[in-house]
Amino acid sequence: MNYEKEMNMDKVQFGDMPPQAFLLGLLSAFDNRYQAAADAFFKEITWKQFFAIICINLCKEAPTINELSDVMGSSHQNVKQILLRLEKKGFVATVADEKDKRKQRIVVTDAARTFLEENDNNGQQSRKIIGRIFGGIDEKDLMTTIQTIMKMERNLSEL
Questions:
Q1: Strands, DSSP E only, in 38-98?
Q2: DSSP state at residue 63
Q3: DSSP label at residue 64
Q4: Residues 39-60: what's their mean pLDDT?
Q5: The pTM is what?
Q6: Which one of 1, 46, 81, 98 is separated from 126 by 20 to 30 angstroms, measured CA to CA?
Q7: DSSP 3-state assignment of 93?
Q8: Contact (Cβ atoms closer than 8 angstroms) between residue 90 and residue 102
Q9: Rounded CA gap, 146 and 155, in Å?
Q10: What kind of fold does domain 35-125 have according to CATH?
C-alpha cells in the first residue's frame, strides 16, 4: 500500500513501513487530531474530562480512581489530575464507599448531568460531527475495525 498516496501526504515518507507500525501511528495521530477537535467543541471541559465523565457513567457502581483508570486506559496520576479539574468545576465529587470507608468513589454531580444532557450523543451537533467522522464507512468495515482494535487491546493486556 502506498501510504503517502492514501494519506494524501507528500511531506512524509513512510517507505516500506509494515502495516502494523503504520496502524499504530495512524491511531496515535487520529487520537491527537480528534482530541484537538473535541477540545474545541466543548467550551467548559476538555475531551479527556468529558471522556472521564462518560467512563464514570459506564461503571456499574461509582468507581474508585484505580477502577476508573482501568476503564479509561490511563495512569492513576493522569486520571487524578483530570478528576481534580472536574471537581473544581463542580462536575464530580468523591464520596466514601459505604462498605469500606477507606475507599473513595467518584460520582458525577447534577452539573455534570446537565452538561451531558446539553452535549450528549443524541444532540444534533454531536450526531453531525460523528456522522462526518464515520462518513463513507459501512457497518461491516466499522465492526471489523472494532474487532481488530479489541483484539489488539487483549494482546496489549498480555504484555
A1: 92-96
A2: P
A3: P
A4: 90
A5: 0.81
A6: 81
A7: strand
A8: no
A9: 14
A10: Arc Repressor Mutant, subunit A (1.10.10)
